[in-house]
């Protein structure tokens, strides 16, 4: 799970737990100071026609029933908020992180991302594909690309950055191996998104950053690399050299 999530819910739980603890402490002090149960016992013996002793097992069973009921509702609430949290940070169609989720993740990147590559993947003429074949075909292209990324590069930070633009941050990669890596990535994606009557062209931009690199600045540089690749006709890879 991503850090920084559903803090208000956790705070409410703490407040409720403290309130319940306080109520139980007050009840304990009352019962211990005034012998409440002993008084109830004598009262029930003196008024047996009220059948008060029959209520004891009923109260015990009700306590267990309400405890189980509350536990089940609490588990359902946890599942609900977990699902809401997932949908808040993920793209529902591709299963990748959305832009908000990726930005939050990038703010808490672990040390293994110190030497990493940032890659932008963009599908050329995507609007024309949607117009020619329908949005279902365009969605299927994105799903196929996301599926391949999740299968082969699950160690990377993967995101649907905007529209048909995908972003990935690849950890533990060397500057000198970056060209061969992006070529392999390019071939992997283009192989799985071909259409029978139309060639799907892909443009990619990439940049490498060391431990001192600012990932926000790397995003600016990789966007420039992607723009350069698309301006030159698309269907190619541009690595920003800095």
Mean pLDDT: 83
Measure the end-to-end span.
Answer: 34 Å
Shape: elongated
CATH topology of the largest domain: Alpha-Beta Plaits
Largest sheet: 5 strands, mixed
Based on the coordinates given, report the CATH architecture of the largest domain.
Answer: 2-Layer Sandwich
Radius of gyration: 30 Å
Number of helices: 8
Which range does the strand content fall in? Answer: 5-15%
Q: Could you state the CATH homologous superfamily of the largest domain?
A: Reverse transcriptase/Diguanylate cyclase domain
User: How much helicity do the residues have?
Assistant: 55-70%
Output the CATH class name of the largest domain: Alpha Beta
- Order of neighbouring strands in the sheet with most strands: 2-3-1-4-5
Got a strand count?
Answer: 5
Q: Pairing-aware structural class of the strands and helices?
A: alpha+beta
Whole-number tally of structural domains: 2
**Element order: H for helix, E for strand:** HHHHEHHEEHEHE
Uncertain regions: pLDDT < 50 for 5+ in a row? 1-9
Protein name: diguanylate cyclase
GO molecular function, one term: diguanylate cyclase activity
InterPro entries: Diguanylate_Cyclase, GGDEF_dom, Nucleotide_cyclase, Rev_trsase/Diguanyl_cyclase
EC number: 2.7.7.65
What key phrases describe this protein's structure?
Nucleotide_cyclase, 8 helices, five-stranded mixed sheet, 242 residues, Alpha-Beta Plaits, EC 2.7.7.65, 2 domains, 57% helix, transmembrane helix, alpha+beta, elongated, single chain
Summarize the structure.
57% of the residues lie in helices and 14% in strands. With 242 residues, the chain is an alpha+beta fold. Helix 5 packs across helix 6 (135-152).
